[in-house]
Amino acid sequence: xxxxxxxxxxxxxxxxPPGAAAETPAQPQVDTSQLDQAKQKATEAGQQIKTSLDxxxxPQVDTSGIDAALAKVRELSxxxxxxxxxxxxxxxxxxxxxxxxxxxxxxx
Length: 108
What we know:
The longest helix is centred in the last third of the chain and has 35 residues. It contains three helices and no strands. It is rod-shaped.
């Protein structure tokens, strides 16, 4: 009659005798489906990030303020040129009328 102790013991692995061919080692069964899903999601996220960052930008500059300032500068320049020309005409007219320009002494 076997003892009660022998019934409760775990089965012992079978060892091959020395020199005998070893059996193929047991391969663990691992469920990697969650890792595969995480990898797929990471790949998709990476593609979305790359697409989001792959942007060609062209600056748009509003030059209306500069254009308006240049127009005012041109107006001022034209006005100053006209004043200069009018001042020369006035100076020449005064010089002729007063006799300020002459070649010698004036006799009266």
